[in-house]
Write a structure and sequence with these properties.
heterodimer, A: 91 residues, alpha+beta, Jelly Rolls, 4-stranded antiparallel β-sheet, 18% helix, B: 639 residues, 8-stranded mixed β-sheet, 36 strands
């Protein structure tokens, strides 16, 4: 990985008037075994808006070969959760 | 002792004084030269003096300011040399952004490297090169060198703004020769033409100069940069090439000279080889199939080593040497193949070409000169069926040129002299990548099935990188070629049909867990599994160049999915259709029962289009990328 790292994104979206969230984005919290890192996403509905925050954290700069399957599955889960769609609908 | 000191001191003063004449402070660069520039040529003086037919001298003086790291390459000094082109002197100075000297260098700081392979057939073709190690921008490098060449057949062209991102404050080119040495010259994109005159020694002088050339900016799909850069090319009328004299005024005469003087008596083969070639072709009646057999024999016997035509000399090595050593460069291998074909009475032409995939560069029809090409290919003029071949590959089919030398004007050496011919064009429908896949997605979201892809036309070579690899390596490489997460290869096969309509066919049996995501009672997955376009050319304001698509191609994908039972499509289905002069695209989907069929066709059509269509090109790619990202949503039916 080169170095331990943390990426945090906070996105706030204001909706056009007359729309509301029908299906919110999937939220989840997963981790790499042995305190290797974590991914957390959260969704917060607001007044004609919503915010989505996600965080990816790697605690080590080097992972052992035995840890690779865990990291692969970690990414797999993240990609899967980001493939789902959120749907807006008219109020 | 004392005297020596005084002279040395005096010379040092002169050197400093000579350099003090110009101030290379980067802030003195005219402001209108800065847009899009990575470097600025402050002053360049290129002089070629022909002292005699076997003696020409290059004097290069150049100062270039590098504005950012993209311009570092423009400050890289590369001087080719061999025993006939000898470097006489090199010296230079490096300045910081204020024009203050921070370093100087001589020839000892240059690295001298061998270029091409060293082997028994070749003597050292070498290059001296130097790149100053400066990491504060801007900086300026001012240098001067002299090189002596023992020939007058080929002169380096003068191209002051040879690449994108180079602005030119001032550059001049002087060609000096004796009154009886005649030249032809080709000027391209010059604001002012030649100034001719006579110098004090009574020699003829030809001078060109450019001032304040703005940098050419990068634009996607732009034509070959040298088509709109400023340049002068020189061709001699009477010349000497390493002891061989000649004259030419057109391609026919130049071709004749190459045939007579460089190619003559170089195709003799040992008796056993001639007999062998006759033996292996004796049961083949069709001359084209005979030639194919011989070409394949040559491929199996030899391998290619790199020596560029312009540097390694223009004369091929003897066919008998290639026969014995089993290797050669492009010249040697074409000459050898010609000799083998001659053994069974098949005539062929040695053809001189400018190679390159990004652009099809033709020889200039109205200006013959030696320096325009860099590669040799073979042409076999069967009646009504002119066939072409590149002899440097051990694997490509006979009759196949691919995108390295397609669709361009080349010089063929015929018995009547040089003749300009056109190599075949591979149009969009011929360059085909066609894919069929039959997949099943199970209740756990796993994808499995078979995918077969056929590559034709210039796409034929698309899988060449993995064809020679071991099976284990192929599995790994194929995995990287497709954007399917968790793709596991169960079986893989690749076949090449080397007929006159060649095709590469790849078959993959695969599975990929979690291809579809299950969440909240719905399945989500990407409709286009294997061939998603991700490139969108960037917006360009005030585009200057035409839109040039070097060659077109076609992609056809048809994918079926058997989806878990009891689901229906939730979203509006994909139905995209675009039709533009430069390309077209359709993508559709249909669900019948549990079978979802996806069809996609993408075609880009080669050609040159007005710059005004460029925004359409951007929109076209944007729409394709959007359609390729279509996410299928399956929701459970109520019954």
């Amino acid at each position: 990985m080169g170095m331990a790292s943390e990426d945090r994104y906070a996105i706030t979206v204001h909706l056009p008037a007359g729309y509301m969230v029908d299906t919110p984005p999937q939220t989840m919290a997963i981790s790499i075994p042995n305190n290797g890192g974590k991914y957390i996403s959260s969704y917060e509905p607001g007044d004609n808006s919503f915010s989505f925050v996600y965080l990816t954290q790697f605690n080590k700069s080097v992972y052992g070969t035995e840890e690779f399957p865990g990291i692969k599955e970690f990414y797999n889960k993240i990609i899967q959760s980001q493939k789902t769609e959120m749907v807006l609908k008219k109020k | 002792m004392m005297r020596g000191f005084i002279i040395a001191g005096f010379l040092t003063v002169c050197w400093v004084a000579a350099n003090a004449q110009q101030n290379y402070d980067a802030s003195l660069i005219p402001k209108d030269l800065l847009p899009y520039a990575s470097s600025v040529v402050r002053n360049e003086e290129v002089t070629i003096e022909v002292k005699d037919l076997d003696n020409s001298v290059y004097h290069i003086k150049k100062a270039i300011t590098v504005l950012n790291k993209n311009g570092d390459d423009d400050a890289h000094i590369v001087i080719y040399h061999d025993k006939n082109d000898v470097i006489k002197s090199v010296k230079g100075v490096v300045y910081n952004q204020f024009g203050k000297q921070i370093d100087k260098f001589g020839e000892s700081k240059f690295d001298d490297v061998n270029i091409g392979s060293s082997s028994a057939l070749f003597e050292g073709m070498r290059a001296e090169h130097y790149l100053p190690a400066v990491n504060e921008y801007p900086y300026t490098i001012a240098y001067e060198y002299e090189e002596k060449s023992k020939q007058t057949l080929n002169f380096d062209p003068w191209i002051p703004n040879a690449d994108i991102g180079i602005a030119v404050e001032k550059s001049s080119f002087n060609f000096i020769c004796n009154p009886d040495f005649n030249i032809k010259y080709k000027e391209s994109n010059l604001p002012a033409g030649v100034v001719t005159g006579k110098n004090a020694q009574g020699q003829k002088t030809y001078s060109w100069q450019v001032n304040n050339l703005k940098a050419i900016k990068y634009e996607p799909f732009s034509p070959y940069v040298k088509n709109y850069a400023s340049s002068v090319q020189i061709a001699p009328e009477k010349f000497e090439y390493y002891g061989i004299k000649g004259t030419y005024t057109n391609w026919k005469e130049l071709g004749k000279w190459i045939s007579d003087k460089l190619m003559a008596n170089r195709q003799d083969l040992p008796y056993q080889t001639i007999e062998h070639v006759k033996e292996i072709t004796k049961n083949i009646a069709d001359p084209k199939l005979k030639a194919k057999k011989i070409y394949e024999y040559m491929q199996g016997k030899t391998h290619y080593i790199s020596v560029q035509v312009g540097i390694g000399g223009f004369q091929p090595f003897l066919a008998s040497e290639v026969d014995q050593q089993s290797y050669g460069d492009c010249k040697a291998l074409v000459n050898y193949t010609q000799a083998l074909l001659k053994a069974v009475n098949i005539d062929s032409y040695y053809c001189i070409v400018k190679s390159g995939r990004a652009h099809n560069v033709s020889l200039l029809t109205d200006f013959a000169s030696m320096g325009q090409a860099d590669h040799i290919i073979l042409c076999v003029p069967f009646k009504n069926d002119t066939t072409w071949a590149d002899c440097t590959s051990q694997t490509i089919p006979f009759g196949y040129l691919g995108d390295f030398t397609d669709n361009r004007t080349v010089l063929a050496l015929t018995p009547e002299g040089g003749k300009l011919l056109r190599t075949p064009k591979y149009p969009a429908p011929v360059n085909l990548e066609s894919r069929r896949a039959e997949f099943t997605i199970n209740n756990g979201g796993e994808l499995s099935g078979n995918m077969t892809t056929t590559f034709k036309g210039v796409e034929y070579e698309d899988r060449d990188d993995l064809i020679k690899e071991t099976r284990t390596e192929q599995f790994k490489m194929v995995q990287k070629k497709y954007p399917i997460n968790n793709m596991d290869i169960d079986d893989f096969d690749i076949q090449q049909d080397k007929s006159f309509d060649p095709a590469t066919t790849e078959t993959i049996k695969l599975h990929a867990k979690d291809y579809a995501t299950f969440d909240n009672g719905k399945f989500y997955f990407l409709l286009n599994p294997a061939n998603r376009e991700t490139y969108i050319p960037k917006q360009v304001r005030n585009r200057l160049t035409d839109v040039s698509i070097t060659r077109g191609y076609t992609e056809e994908d048809e994918v079926t999915y058997i989806i878990p039972q009891g689901y229906r499509l939730e979203k509006k289905i994909l139905n995209e259709k675009l039709d533009k002069p430069f390309g077209n695209f359709t993508a559709t989907m249909e669900l019948k029962g549990d079978k979802l069929t996806y069809k996609r066709k993408f075609q880009l059509i080669g050609g040159t289009y007005s710059k005004d269509v460029y925004p359409d090109v951007v929109d076209f790619f944007q729409a394709v990328v959007d359609a390729d990202e279509y996410n299928v949503v399956l929701v459970k039916t109520n019954n």
